[in-house]
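Many introductory courses stop at the sequence. We go one step further.
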Amino acid sequence: MTAPLRASAYFPAPRTQHFCSQCGSPVVHRVPDDDNRERALCDNCGAIHYQNPRMVVGTLPVWQDQVLLCRRAIEPRLGYWTLPAGFMELGETTAQGAERETREEAGARIDLGPLFSMIDVPMADQVHLFYLAQMHDPDFDPGPESLEARLFREQDIPWEDIAFRTVSTTLRLFFADRRNGRFGMHTPSLDAPSPATVPAST
């Protein structure tokens, strides 16, 4: 099922802070007293601004022997294939976020299964979590962040066009577990990629 061609703008929040969110003054970067990491400090009001990893949540939707992938309509990796996933929102659980992203990106109705992969991506300050999911039916309607959505058998996965290493890693683990007849919980960690490697961040 294909959606009209479109390319939405993507503006990630900056990870380097220049101004205090409390009083608007410029911040300095140094290690505070009784700490061991450099932080953004405001010498005007005394605020210390902490940065923490971001959670990316999604699903691996399955219909019979096929998995559902979405082709991205936004940067980064516009036009590449991915599992439905995105940043967790405030006020939701990881499971709720994964179901929401599946509705928004793929328009698929699912029964959420167990957490399947939790992948540390330290060079992107992220953790990616993917749940197994069973589709209610093969009908889906991709949202504005997807150019199209499509069901793939293992032999038809477009490996060279997968958007992120966390997605290709999760897919390979899934197919290996399926062949073994038992699904486990996987917690790999991705090192920094070489220039020719698929990016890890979503």
